[in-house]
Amino acid sequence: MNIHNSMYVRFIGIIVLAAVGVIFLISSLPISDTCKCENPVERDIQHEQFHRSFKELSPSDKHKLAILVPFRDRFDELLRFAPHISRFLNRQRVPFHIFVLNQNDRYRFNRASLINAGFLLVKDQYDYIAMHDVDLLPLNDNLKYEYPKNGPLHISGPEFHPKYHYATFIGGILLLKIEHYQLLNGMSNKYWGWGLEDDEFYVRIKEAGLEVHRPRNITSGPDDTFLHIHDRLHRRRDTAKCFNQREVTRRRDRETGLNTLRYSLDSRRELTIDDVPVTVLNLNLECDKSQTPWCECDSKGDAKSRLETKSKS
């Protein structure tokens, strides 16, 4: 009899404990009047606070960079350039925008005049510019595209460039703040065809008392600091010299620059390349043939160019 009573008591105890457990579980479940679900308003506030924290890390007063890319018939290179430079600068958290300065006229390519035109079109919205070749891609993350407050910053220095190694070289990638480029009156407009416009610009920089700065503590060299994607066999450079071009373009130009540039903006196109926004400025440059007849090498100029090339060889 005692055994039966003991079993009965245990059975009752188990039932009581089970009932208490069920009641506890039911009371913890949300019901319509006491729902503990996430409040949509609070959730939106939390998301806004989360995104605001990123904005605080990238303040709106950071200097804005306009990347000026002189351009003609280089679309395959542009397709590689835009995504690459975007990833590179995003890692540095540099606010930037790419402007492709597309020469739309019939004259020979004029890199310097394109940069002058691009500068005039962006100078009021940006703090500094990068004169950037489309075929030169930076690989070393220690190449900082920082605001060049103390003077021109030459990213592609001669000790790192894949091809050019002379001390006064400032081509490839050069950064200047807006005030300094304005002070120099930009670049010379006399350089139709390829080459030498950077060398003349170097003289302008030195005469203005500015010092060219270059990245420091770069451990890579000419073979692995940049990727040079220009195919010289597929796209030959226009190195012809006609009329008295060779003589004139080897002197300091004190006549032309930003204040003498003649151009028109044919159209402006916005496009994206692999989600990277790019602005294409289609530019028509004007040529005063009384000053620079070599903007078009006619038969007379071509004949002279061939004679110069033959005598040089």
How would you summarize the topology of this molecule?
Blueprint: H1 2-28, H2 40-57, E1 65-71, H3 75-92, E2 96-103, H4 111-122, E3 128-132, E4 136-138, E5 153-154, E6 173-177, H5 178-183, H6 197-207, E7 226-228, H7 245-248, E8 263-273, E9 276-285, H8 299-312
Parallel strand pairs: 1-2, 1-3, 2-9
Antiparallel strand pairs: 3-6, 4-7, 5-6, 8-9
Description:
- The protein has helices at residues 2-28, 40-57, 75-92, 111-122, 178-183, 197-207, 245-248, 299-312; strands spanning 65-71, 96-103, 128-132, 136-138, 153-154, 173-177, 226-228, 263-273, 276-285.
- The protein is an alpha/beta fold and 313 residues long.
- Strands 5-6-3-1-2-9-8 form a seven-stranded mixed β-sheet.
- The longest helix has 27 residues, at 2-28.
- Residues 32-37, 49-59 and 300-313 have low confidence and may be disordered.
Return the average pLDDT rounded to an integer: 84
Sheet with most strands: 7 strands, mixed
Low-confidence stretches: 32-37, 49-59, 300-313
SS-based structural class? alpha/beta
Order of strands in the sheet with the most strands?
A: 5-6-3-1-2-9-8
Helix content: 25-40%
The SSE string, one letter per element, is: HHEHEHEEEEHHEHEEH
The portion of residues forming beta strands comes to: 15-25%
Distance between the termini: 126 Å
Would you report the number of β strands?
9
**How many helices?**
8
Rg calc: 32 Å
- Overall shape: it is elongated
Features:
8 helices, alpha/beta, elongated, 313 residues, single chain
Short description:
The chain crosses the membrane at residues 7-29. By secondary structure, the protein is of the alpha/beta class. It is built from 8 helices and 9 strands.
